């Protein structure tokens, strides 16, 4: 046990070993941060996709089948636009009213 403690003390006092250990810690921290960001972005993207599909379903129920061009318009809309579309479904006369800019 004493040999292990001595070896750890020796390694700890070596500037090169300290720098490498710090670089490993920094790399691990950056990797974990990157994973967290990717997770948040993926989650937000999934929510937007789900919201877009719900808007398309509402449009279909209210106005009939949604053509490919309008479905793509909904799928590429921002989250704020999707909220606006969903609100407009309730009062719009037709699909064009819902998707108007």
Mean pLDDT: 89
| Shape summary | rod-shaped
Roughly how many Å apart are the termini? 74 Å
Radius of gyration: 27 Å
For the secondary structure, the number of strands is 0
Q: Name the helix and strand elements from N-terminus to C-terminus, one letter apiece.
A: HHHHH
Task: Please outline the major beta sheet.
Answer: none
Q: Number of folding domains?
A: 1
Low-confidence stretches: none
**Percent of residues in beta strands:** under 5%
Question: What percent of the residues sit in helical stretches (DSSP H or I)?
Answer: over 70%
Q: SS-based structural class?
A: mainly alpha
Number of helical elements: 5
Write up this protein:
The chain is mostly helical. The chain has one domain. It contains 5 helices and no strands. It has helices at residues 2-13, 15-63, 68-75, 79-89, 95-99. Helix 2 (15-63) packs parallel to helix 4 (79-89). The mean pLDDT is 89.
Compact description:
The protein has 101 residues and is mostly helical. It has five helices and no strands.
Supply database-style keywords:
101 residues, mainly alpha
List the topology elements.
Blueprint (H helix, E strand, L loop, with lengths): L1 H12 L1 H49 L4 H8 L3 H11 L5 H5 L2
Helix pairs in contact: 2-4
